[in-house]
Amino acid sequence: MRRPRRGTSHRGPDNAAEQISGGGAHARGQHVAVKIDRPSEVGEYDAAMQTLLQLLWGEGFLSPGGAAEVAYLLEGSNLAGCSVLDIGCGLGAVDELLITRHGAQSVLGVDVDPGLLASMAQRIEHAGLRSRVTALCVKPGPLPLAAGSFDVVFSKDAIVQIPDKAAVFADAYRLLRPGGTLIVSDWLRGGSGAYSPEMLEYFRLEGLAYNMANLAETTATLARVGFVEIEPRDRNAWYRDLARRELAALEGELRPLVTERIGAEKAEHFVNNWRQLVLVLERGELRPAHIKARK
Ligand SMILES: C[S@@+](CC[C@H](N)C(=O)[O-])C[C@H]1O[C@@H](n2cnc3c(N)ncnc32)[C@H](O)[C@@H]1O
Fold it and tell me: From CA 67, how far away is CA 189, in angstroms rounded?
């Protein structure tokens, strides 16, 4: 495996999983893969990360904003009576909301990580929603589901982990009934080309697979696969401000609880992770966004 210089572009199949060494003591060790242009791995969201994210974002959420952000994403969309596919459902709190607050008739949540899905299944059972919410473990790639099966294809902050955007959006298009709606929140990038050293350091601290497109690339891909009425909404400013507050909490009021739950070393790691997150949000290089489109 080649060892790239810091700050150079790592895009492309030949250098999809390079390693960057050094960078100071790190809860995950000295050599940490920057995972770009490659699929998410089972177990990426380890116990410490799941604990930390849920302390910040709420029980059952692996993405920011909780119920309010889901409601904002769904503003203007009527899910009443709809069959919904959720790509990258994680721990399933969002799927519960799609039924209990937003009126969906049924939700099929798919994810690549069986551990997360096992927790989701418990959550759904506990909520008494077993007849309405199903969890399905899938492999990256086209989903083993019939064309035209869903009124809505939904995804919250998961498509960033999927390298082939054209393929995932073409599959979403295939799975929607004619006139069906795509509703996506995703972590996009600002700009294009080589990632900055700041972004590469952010990826290193995260340890998660990142496959980022910008908003223009994403809307162009959606149009190419056939979607119409494409409506993008940038969420950079919203998450920049929230992430600043999350960092303050990790440094302050939440620190004792986080330390108790995951240990001092990992707590320190996540403070550094969040400092870098705030930095790339402030630089506009990380740009969460909402996108809706119709088949
Ligand atoms: C940031 S988490 C978001 C989870 C959930 N949507 C939420 O908002 O709490 C991203 C999720 O996408 C899943 N994922 C990654 N690659 C995937 C793929 N190719 N197909 C389905 N899920 C995937 C991960 O396992 C993880 O659960």
Answer: 24
Structural domains of the chain in order of their starting residue, each with its CATH number? 18-234+287-294 (3.40.50.150)
Residue-level pLDDT at 32: 56
Residue-level length of the chain:
295
Worst-scoring range by mean pLDDT, 20-29, 32-41, 191-200? 20-29
Q: Spell out which residues line ligand 1, taking CB within 6 angstroms.
A: 39-40, 61-63, 87-91, 94, 110-113, 116, 138, 140, 156-158, 161-162
pLDDT (tens digit per residue) in 180-229 = 999 999 999 999 999 999 999 999 999 888 999 999 999 999 999 999 99
89 CA to centre of ligand 1 in angstroms = 6
pTM, two decimals, is 0.90
Dihedral angle sign, alpha carbons of residues 72, 77, 80, 85: negative
Q: Closest residue (by CA) to atom 18 of ligand 1?
A: 140
| CA 156/CA 206 separation, integer angstroms | 18
Q: How far is the CA of 51 from the centre of ligand 1 (A)?
A: 16
Average pLDDT over residues 99-118: 98
Alpha helices in 127-214, H assignment, sequence order: 165-175, 197-206
